[in-house]
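Quick check before the chapter quiz. The format below is the same one you will see on the exam, so make sure you can read both the input and the output lines.
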Amino acid sequence: MARVVLALGSNLGDRGVRLDAAVSALSQLPQTRLLKCAKRYETTPVDVPKGYEDLSFLNSAVLIETGLPPIELLREVNRIEAEEGRVRLLRNGPRTLDIDIILYEGVKSDDPVLTLPHPRAAERDFVLLPLADLGLTREHILQNTFEDV
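Here is the expected output.
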């Protein structure tokens, strides 16, 4: 079993309902257990296409323990996003639900399909703020560690 940090976000529809659905679905994945859930934070969009700057996000994060390999977890995360209406039309466009794998204990990957730790997480306050609720800092991401968590 490995510990994994997932960042959650939504800026379309009933954002709180979407985040609740994501946490519920993640906790029901096979070989997976929800350890901690961060508070929710209202944040401004970053790097969004022109015209979408006013669609603020509701962000959170979860710490899970899972026996799913990273790529299988990614497939499950993408399935959960799709079940919540996620459509990928524009890069960084509005979304009903976004779930990013930030850290996966013991795994470092430069694969473009799944880069770990997440390549931009340490630069983004909308990720770092909820991660702090889980006892994680920018240094945990940069050093790819769960030490002291």
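If your answer matched, good. The longest strand covers residues 57-66.
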